[in-house]
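Q: I'm writing a short explainer about Putative nicotinamide-nucleotide adenylyltransferase for a general audience and would like to include a description of its predicted shape. Could you first generate the structure from this sequence?
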Amino acid sequence: MSAQPAAVPAPRYRHGLVIGKFYPPHAGHLSLIRQALACCERVTVEVLASSAESVSGELRADWLRVCLPSARVVTGVDDEPVDYASPTAWQAHTAVMLSLLDPADGPVDAVATSDSYGAELASRLGASWLQVDPGRQALPVSGRRIRSDPARYWWALPAPVRAWFVRRVAVVGAESTGTTTLARALSDHYRLPQVPEFGRQWSRQRPGGLDAAWASVEFDLVARVQAQWEDEAAALTARPLLITDTDVLATSLWHERYMGSRSASVEALAASRRPDLYLLTGDEIPFVQDGLRDGEHIRHDMQESFRRTLAAGPVPWVELQGSHEERMAEAIALIDELAAEPRPMSPPLSEAHVGASTMSDGLRVGAEREKTAAGPHDDVLTDALEEC
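A: Of course. Here's the predicted structure. Afterward I'll give you a sentence or two in plain language.
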């Protein structure tokens, strides 16, 4: 007789609550929510964003929904001052939390946190307190540390959050200006995943080949797939950097070249996903026919169109000329400078407006104990303020 699988124990609680800024979501947050899901029939995750923060609460909630679809993730604005010693502040924060709950889920009977404020919050909600990984011993990471150095804590970031932090460099240019050669070489230099040009692949496989007239809808397809390839690579890259061979803005210029005008839909997509730097490959080198190119006679006009468009836009750009080695050297210097600065995030409300002096004596003692256990480089006081 084959062995029977062990019965899965029933959840101990009906409705669990996890709160935080999730600024940004990281492995510690996901572990905390998974622990709550394991012992609660349903779990509400509340993203308590403030107007001082530069990443919207809804985007953070979307990231969590992708990572943990079985949790109910909601978001609200909480600009109340963080003061653990103030009953008024506690009441204000609790009111925001209660307003985000769905009455159909029933009252909260479990609150899951890592930090010591969970005891007070659970008491105010008439719930049990589930403390998970106190002092962050298992997963020594916090949103504050990630904001200051995302590359160091890259291991702790879920894929959609990684994609947001990635610094993106788009290599663009007219036909036969060395864009693909440079993009590939730079990706190899930084050991990054390749992001090829989908438009080139589509040119090979499109019905009718190069002789058939182009349709506007084809450029919508090219733009969407190019954006998808870029985002997939950004989620997989081993560091917060990505080099792309062309981008959606370039697709808009090719639409104008073939259709006589810009595409509103492609332009809108391009405006929603601007890179951090454009590298424009110069057109001073000879034209080389590869069997797909058909614009030698207008190559310099196309290059001028790129220059005008980039000059009118908000993204920094540099035109690279000279030999491949000279282009590489200049590009690497520019990218190294860009990659040295993490994507900026404004400080959360707690860091911007609250000092440790606002903490109650009881919470201070608990947090200092956690800080000692976690090590001299951890600032649990700040982390606790941030997550409440």
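A: For your explainer, you could say: Residues 352-385 have pLDDT under 50 and may be disordered.
Q: Perfect, that's easy to follow.
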